[in-house]
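User: My instructor asked us to take a sequence, write out its structure as tokens, and then describe one feature of it. I'm not sure where to start. Here is the sequence I was given:
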Amino acid sequence: MRIAYFGYNALSSCLDLLAHRGHEITSIYTGEASLHSDNIINSAQHLQCQLSFDKPSKQHMEALVESGVDMFFAAEYPWRIPIPKQLKYAINVHPTLLPEGRGPTPLPSLILHQPQHAGVSLHKMTDDIDGGDILLQQKITIDKDESFDTLSAKLFLETPLLLDQLLTGLSNYYEDSTPQIGGSYWPQITRQEQTVDWNQPTPVVLQQIRAFGSLGTYTEINGHRYLITHAEGVKHQHNVNTGDVLSVDNIKLVIATSDGLVSIARSCLISLKS
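Assistant: Let's start with the prediction itself. The structure tokens for your sequence are:
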């Protein structure tokens, strides 16, 4: 097949599988050149295919189909993709067991609130974002110490396996797809939900930091704003105010929670402009 691919590094394993199976990748759409897209950009150069950083327009998508593209495949792609009526296959990856968890940022919510809905869904791409018929699904178990980054790694490994299964009987899966009925939409995570509340118990603080992982969790320390990407903590009785800095040096700093302490390596603390 001739395939137009849409995505970032997070699920570039799908692009690798499609190329490995001998499909022709005619074009790759991704966002701006960054640490989140460098693997995709390198793949486009290796495959010698068209690379675009532009939002997909209806005109460009129709031109792809007219040029002989059989499939649009999207994996962790944030922008709406116009789907020409004459396109044979349009498939999207979503990291929940649809119809539960439609929406743009489900991974933190899976870890914090809805672990039973973690999984991979391959579904038809339609104008209704995350709402197309389901083709194949695979459940993923959330560990008690799961983080955004470990869950992302599981998805990176499991998604191409499910895609490989889909490709072995694509026309049959497409014809026998299951419409989504009911379900739920999880809105964009708010800044407040992504901000540490040091008044919470230590396990709650650590779970929140894990849930956002390398995305970072916002905090304010001594009047300065930071993103925390990783931390360790324990329960420990103390008589200082929550949020106070217990110790600080060039390697780490330690913050008081309501019932313990959290240690943050300097390398995991990103300073933000005020």
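For the description part of your assignment, you could build on this observation: The chain has two domains: 2-175, 202-271. Try explaining in your own words what that tells you about the chain.
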